[in-house]
Structure formats: C-alpha cells, structure tokens
Amino acid sequence: MLVVDDDEGVRTGVTWALEADGFDVTAVDNGISALEMIHASPPALVVLDLSLPGIGGLDILRGIRAGEEDNGSYRLPIIVLSGRDGETDRIVGLDLGADDYLVKPFSPGELAARARSVLRRSSNFATDTQPFEPTGSGVEMDRESRHLWVDGRSVELAAKEFDLLAYFVDHPQRVCTRSELLTAVWSSHAGWQTEATVTEHVYRLRQKVEDDPRRPRRLRTIRSVGYRWEG
After folding, report:
1. What CA–CA distance (Å, rounded) separates 202 from 181?
2. Whether 91 and 179 share a structural domain
3. Is the pTM here over 0.90, yes or no?
4. Cis peptide leading into residue 105 (ω within 30°)
C-alpha cells in the first residue's frame, strides 16, 4: 500500500494506523516519487493527499485513471485525503475516479476500515463476482442479500429502511420530496401512509449510516423540500 502526503505527521499517523491493521505500507511525500513507484510496481491501494507540492493530488489521480483507460489495465484502488470539506472537492475527486474520500482530521480506525472496504470491492471487481455496490463515503450495499456495510462494518436494516436507501442511491445528488419517496417506496400502501412515515424512516436510517445523525453528511435534509443523498 502506498501513502502519499507531504505532512510528516499525517504520513506517520496514517502509516502507523494501516500497519497496525496488518497492511504493508510505503510512504512518500511528493507526487513524482508516487508516480515513479506506481509505474514501477503498482501497490494494492493508494492513499493520496490532494494538497501536494508540485504535482497535485488531483493531477496524479487524473493521470492514473487516464493511463488505465489507455492501457486497459487493472484499476488501482485510490482513497483521497483532503483538508477541505467542500462538496465541490469531494465531487471532483470522486468524478475523477477516487474510490473513497476522507476529510482531515479522521480517525485511524476509520481509515483502516475504508481501506479494507475499498480493497474488498477491488478484489471482487477483479474476479467479476462483485456483489457489493459502492454508494460513496464508505457505504456499500448488496441488493441481493439486502445487506449494508458502513465504513467496513456490517449494518442491519429493516425492509423499508433498505428500500428507502436503495431509492436514494439510485437518485444521488438529487432532492427527493417526501411525497415522491412515499409513492416510490411505499407504492400501493402510500394511500394510508403519511409523509411523517418518511420522516420517521429517514430518522432511523440516519442512526445507522451517519457518524453523527445530528449532523448528517450522507443523507441531507433540504429544508421544506425533502432529502438528498450525497453518498
């Protein structure tokens, strides 16, 4: 595994956390060294800081993905690190091909869980037997078994909670009204349900998919309209 971060403290902390979880880690402090190592011997996973001197993290990410498209090579798993919590940075990173996105500061345990999750998905992609569906930000689901993993840990959902999450995942970054959700998820039973049913199920879902349900970052409330899944 390759860690790329110009902050010695972060680099040391990330390396320690991953090694403590059983990973073999190499760490570098600049983009040039990172690209040289990736081209010479691709690691199992790259933990990549965006704010690097010289060649920036987004440029490295863009170059890696472009090279894979040109060569048809195996897709290198990448977790992006950033000191910025802006939605635009997160979307750009994911759009360029990052497998996950972590905002500093983060806990060592969370990073290790994200790494395990990304590697598990990558291994399954490689064998074409992938039952997991990544939904962004450390959340992945298996619709066949109707199961969920959040930051690498198994999470049990009630039937309608899973149906509601699946609808959000199918409509990312779009505001879904309570009325729409009621019709789509409860369908034929919507006539005797109310929008309060949706509100209650969103509340329960947040208890299971959010780090802090009081300040949700995955399932946002759009005041007076509805909800938006940001992954």
Report:
1. 10
2. no
3. no
4. yes
